[in-house]
Amino acid sequence: MSTFKAVIVGAGAMGQAWGSNLKSISNQVEIGGWVDIRPDAAASAADKIGISAYTGSDLEKAIAEVKPDFVVDVTIPESHKEVTLTSLKAGVPVLGEKPMAASMAEAREMVAASEKSDKLYMVSQSRRYDKNLSAYRSLIEKVGPLGILNSDFYIGAHFGGFRDEMASPLILDMAIHTFDAARYLCNGDPVAVYCEEFNPPWSWYSGDVSATAIFEMVGGLRYTYRGSWCSEGQATSWEAEWRAVGAKGTATWDGVGDHPPTAELVSGEEGFIRAITPLTAEVVEEPSGIAGSIQDFLNALKTGATPMGECHDNIKSLAMVFAAIESSETRQRIPVAL
Ligand SMILES: NC(=O)c1ccc[n+]([C@@H]2O[C@H](COP(=O)([O-])OP(=O)(O)OC[C@H]3O[C@@H](n4cnc5c(N)ncnc54)[C@H](O)[C@@H]3O)[C@@H](O)[C@H]2O)c1
Hints:
- There is one protein chain.
- Strands 14-13-12-11-7-10-9-8-15 form a nine-stranded mixed β-sheet, with helices on one face.
- It is an alpha/beta fold.
- The radius of gyration is 21 Å and the shape is globular.
- The chain contains nine helices and 15 strands.
- The longest helix has 20 residues, at 311-330.
- The chain folds into two domains: 4-119, 3-Layer(aba) Sandwich (Rossmann fold); 128-287 and 319-335, 2-Layer Sandwich (Dihydrodipicolinate Reductase, domain 2), CATH 3.30.360.
- The two termini are 42 Å apart.
- Nicotinamide-adenine-dinucleotide (NAD) is lined by residues 9-15, 35-38, 41, 74-77, 79, 82-83, 97-98, 126.
- Residues 9-15, 35-38, 41, 74-77, 79, 82-83, 97-98, 126 line the site of nicotinamide-adenine-dinucleotide.
């Protein structure tokens, strides 16, 4: 017997991944309904993953029929506001895919709607749920407080489709994960950014798919992001490659799943180069990716705890994205406004 009933909205590639994840925890969550504006898309997705549920194309009707405990929004970014507002207005909490919205104005409306309805709206920033990332965060506490945090992201990604035509494919579609991880790792908020987006001559994308950004974070920490999606060879991990420098030493992680983060803590007080003590992070198994998001969300519904990705917090990662794009367009240092 499931404790919670959910309606999924969006039956595309990612919607089906959510459907499979929820099906695998049917003792906790029943998929009561599935909605997609494309006729029959929800019904065929339900068939494909082998569940029987209410299906249709109208979310309000689905909520009235199914009476879910929460809605999972896996639509395109341009539809996130509509789906979230409809659900919250009906008094139903929302677990939504990233990015929160297609603009900061929309995102602010969504946060306000969560406050007005007094219902949880959490954005699933699923790459946060990673045993190595949380081990790295704990290691960083040992070298901190931090003054420097760097991330490198270099992958030659041949998607084809809409990303090849977008104006800022790397920053809009991918960097939100890395920016969000940076906030998580330094446990800090952004202040301002200087960013340049550019497109190397060999790029197969129309828009600028490479970028360098320098963020000032609260307390003066500088977080730098260097990345490209048109970088062939010597790829980094999708989690990026990290270096964190604090008063007591340096911690690094190459972002690779089975490589634990490591650090060197300064232990000597003399000499041109001080003696160091090496340290390897203790990595503890935990639910990862979408499964981690779902457990965080369910725990919040059960206990009232604030999950990672709660909208008041997640909007700060979105703000980093839009400030970086504005900086790149204007060639100015831009405050990260919430
Ligand atoms: N966390 C990750 O690593 C990750 C990876 C891929 C995609 N995503 C995110 O997941 C979301 C969905 O991505 P996708 O690749 O599945 O897209 P997709 O285009 O394959 O599917 C989106 C579906 O939503 C439906 N839809 C659009 N507007 C709707 C509305 N108002 N009501 C109901 N249905 C609607 C479309 O018909 C489509 O079937 C996006 O926000 C994307 O950024 C996240």
